Amino acid sequence: MKNMKKSPVLYLILLFVALASLAITTVSAVRATPLDESEEYTARMISSNIGVTLQEGDADKDSWKNVAWRNYDTDHWDPEKGVMGLPIFEGLDLTSGTLYEDDFRVLNSGTIDEYVRVIVYKHWLSEKDGELVKDTDLDASLIQLSYAGSSNWVKDTKYSTSEKEIWYYTKPLAAAKKATADTPASEAEVTDVLINGIKLDGEIKNKYTKDEIVTQTEDETGTTTYTTITYDYEYNGKTFKIMLEVDGVQIKHAEDAILSAWGRKGITVNGDGSLSISN
User: Fold this and answer.
1) Which of 89, 114, 124, 148: disulfide with 196, CB 3.0–4.6 Å?
2) Three-class secondary structure of residue 80 per DSSP
3) φ, ψ for residue 259 (rounded to 5)?
4) Domain membership flag for residue 6
5) CA dist 212 to 55, 154, 209, 251, Å?
6) Which of 167, 162, 168, 166 has its CA nearest to residue 240?
7) For the segment 70-97, what is each residue's pLDDT rounded down to a tens digit?
């Protein structure tokens, strides 16, 4: 029997980070100021052809910009970082439950066809010893992303939680192709829109404790009673953090590549090239 030599698994990871602080002063006056950050994270990048780019824009106007990317250019990894996306929240009432629209999709910016997935991380941060640290006592489900509803994006319900949602794009994403004698040139493919907005659950404004302090004063006219009511908002001064992790794997030997790179069993490649995910 011949020894079958497997081709190397080609994949990469791109991490896109968004922070916004929440300052609750009254129920009707809530503002947030963004702390912009965009960074990349790489793991076992052994390909000379693979690349992913996260795009932000307006799907209705077909207007897009690259906000973060990671591409291998034969000799080196492109170190460029994107500009922070996500809406500018300053001056907006985040506790109203209003959806602030912002569209995100993924572009194949490499030179080989690939499968991509997006992992959405979201949680709250609190200040401790002068640093922002993850606060597991606060409810991550109050941070809500709106998903566009494309059937080509499938949520991995088996491994998703309130703090982490895993989405697979089931169609292979083709790279740009140069024209040949037999075929015309073609542009790189993009996914359907995955995320089209962000909001905080309106219930966040009801997360408070109420304290009443009764005091009395006396003078020649008699006794006067005063009641002072204070509200301590649980999420006042907290920061929420959203991370979009985009990664791609080769379509060649895809099932082996997906298992090796993503560690996910139960993903199969159908005859038409689409992925099926067992949940």
Assistant:
1) 148
2) coil
3) -65, -40
4) no
5) 50, 49, 10, 64
6) 162
7) 776 544 444 444 433 444 454 555 666 7
Cβ-Cβ contacts under 8 Å for 82 (sequence gap 6 or more): 16, 38, 54, 66, 67, 68, 69
Is-above-0.85 flag for pTM? no
Contacts of 5 (CB under 8 A, 6+ apart): none
Can you list the alpha helix ranges (DSSP code H) found in the chain?
254-262
Domain region containing 52: 11-206+236-277
Overall size of the chain counted in residues: 279
Catalogue the E-assigned strands of the chain.
11-26, 29-36, 51-58, 63-71, 100-108, 114-128, 131-134, 143-147, 153-155, 164-169, 195-200, 208-219, 222-233, 239-250, 267-269, 275-277
CA distance 21 to 117: 28
- Bridge partners for 57 per DSSP: 64, 103
Q: How far apart are alpha carbons 245 and 54 in whole angstroms?
A: 9
Question: Is residue 230 within 8 Å of residue 213, measured between CB atoms?
Answer: yes
Residues 124, 138: contact at Cβ < 8 Å? Answer: yes
pLDDT at 16: 55
Q: Count of alpha carbons within 13 Å of 119, Cβ hemisphere only? A: 13
Give percent of the chain with pLDDT exceeding 90: 31
Give me 45's structure tokens. 């990048």
For residues 32 and 13, what is the distance between their CA atoms, to the nearest angstrom?
Answer: 29
Q: Is 85 inside a domain boundary?
A: yes
What is the number of structural domains in the chain?
1
265 in a domain, yes or no? yes
Q: Are 109 and 55 spatial neighbours (Cβ–Cβ below 8 Å)?
A: no
Torsion angle, alpha carbons of 182, 184, 185, 186, to 10: -110
Q: How far apart are CA 41 and CA 35, in angstroms?
A: 19
